Automatic annotation (TrEMBL):
Lineage, opening ranks: Bacteria, Bacillati, Actinomycetota, Actinomycetes, Kitasatosporales
Residue span, ABM domain: 1-90
Top-rank lineage group of the source organism: Bacteria
Protein name: ABM domain-containing protein
Length: 101
């Protein structure tokens, strides 16, 4: 599973955003089913960011999202964002990371 989040960070909150993201990442890398992720910043529009994460399966992702620790960790990160964020979950169907199912 791949999760994509398109985000817009509030001007002047970039350092707070990255710091709080790293806190979330520290927990995520130890969470069962988490396979990796990347945080990217737009070259053309520095206020726009892309966050991708990889999960073993949908069940792992659902457990992560429901985890009380996750909820508490993402609050400071989300406080740095504008409300026009977009999140979607994708099943990888082809490529080197694709799995049947």
């Amino acid at each position: 599973m791949r999760v994509l989040r398109l985000l817009r960070v509030r001007e002047g909150r970039e350092e707070d955003f990255v710091r709080s993201y790293r806190g979330v990442l520290e927990r995520a890398v130890r969470f069962p089913g988490h396979l990796g992720e990347q945080l990217c910043r737009s070259v053309d529009e520095p206020g726009r960011w892309l966050l991708t994460s990889e999960w073993q399966n949908l069940e792992s992702l659902k457990r992560w999202r429901a985890d009380p620790g996750h909820t508490a960790l993402v609050e400071p990160m989300n406080a740095c964002l504008h409300d026009d964020r977009w999140t979607a979950v994708f099943h990888v169907v082809d490529g080197p990371d694709a799995t049947a199912g």
